[in-house]
Amino acid sequence: MADSASLKEKEYVLYCDESISDGPYYSNFYGGLLIGASRLEGASARLAACKADQNLYGEVKWQKVTDNYLGKYVVLMDALFAEMKAGRLKMRIMFRQNALKPRGLTALQVEQAYFILYYQFIKHAFGFAAMPPHAQPVRLRVYLDQFPDTGEQVARFRGYILGLNASRDFLNARLSMASQDFVEVRSHEHVLLQCLDVVLGAMAFRLNDMHKAIPSGAKRRGKRTVAKEKLYKHILRHVRMIYPNFNIGITTGGGFAMRWEHPYRHWAFVPKEHDYDNTLTKP
Question: Is residue 175 included in any domain, yes or no?
Fold first, then answer.
């Protein structure tokens, strides 16, 4: 059940990021981290202090993981999951399996797939439909890592997201967003967004078998690949402390209320109409 402190929150902050859009087996990776505004400053300060203790003064990113920095990233992930296990933040990862090919999409839907899936992620991944009604109206701020697309496309997407204010799920939960609450941010200014990038990158890395990559002309994997696999395994151990035998490639189970209450979940997005192409599965 939701703890009493969360039911008293007047505001939530949702950090969103995306990773591999076109992987060999899994694509369209989206990640989100949700935290009550009353807990934001404390959690950010603790994680920033952890970074400083490890001499990680630059931006933390999955792509920066190396053998030399592995131990530092392990300590930071320990601090991140400590926040999660204490109930101070929630994390969600969404992705699409390539073998489940959507059927009957229009040209516009194909063109706008990036934003359509992002919309579905924000609307559903955190289980706002299962969010208990709070004691007072609740504000939602959405911070997204900078988009690669044009201002016109982003403006259209903003309109879709703000349209959630009229949805039954948001109305029932007394949840709302204002136009100024939907903001593109620079990840190097937000330690929570940086930590999200690491977890999201780890899952995209493993689901696409990148841990097996051997450089051309080499006989064995590179040190960076080995370090990334070790960090992924460390993250997975933390997840499995919450959910024993967690399977990263499927939607996390549990009842309807768990979509909101769980500290960590995966969502394997399945198109309503799709064909199965077994040539796109792992060998």
Answer: yes
- Domains in the chain: how many in total? 1
18 contacts: CB under 8 Å, gap ≥ 6: 28, 29, 30, 31, 114, 118, 145, 200
Burial of residue 265 (CB within 10 Å: 0-12, 13-18, 19+) is: buried
- Assess if residue 143 is contained within a domain: yes
Domain that holds residue 46: 11-59+83-193+245-274
CATH number at residue 150: 3.30.420
Reduced to 3 states (helix: H, G, I; strand: E, B; else coil), residue 113 is helix
Q: Which residues contact 16 (CB under 8 A, 6 or more apart)?
A: 30, 31, 32, 118, 121, 122, 142, 143, 144, 145
Residue 171 neighbours by CB under 8 Å, 6+ apart: 165
Cβ–Cβ < 8 Å for 221, 213: yes
Please name the residue that has the structure tokens 């516009």: 108
Show the tokens assigned to 210.
């990148």
Is 105 inside any structural domain?
Answer: yes
The pTM (predicted TM-score) of the whole model is 0.94
Segment 242-250 shows an average pLDDT of: 96
Assigned token pair, 223: 């040190």
**Structural domain includes residue 239:** no
State pLDDT tens for residues 44-71: 999 999 999 999 999 999 999 999 999 9
CB 230 within 8 A of CB 206: no
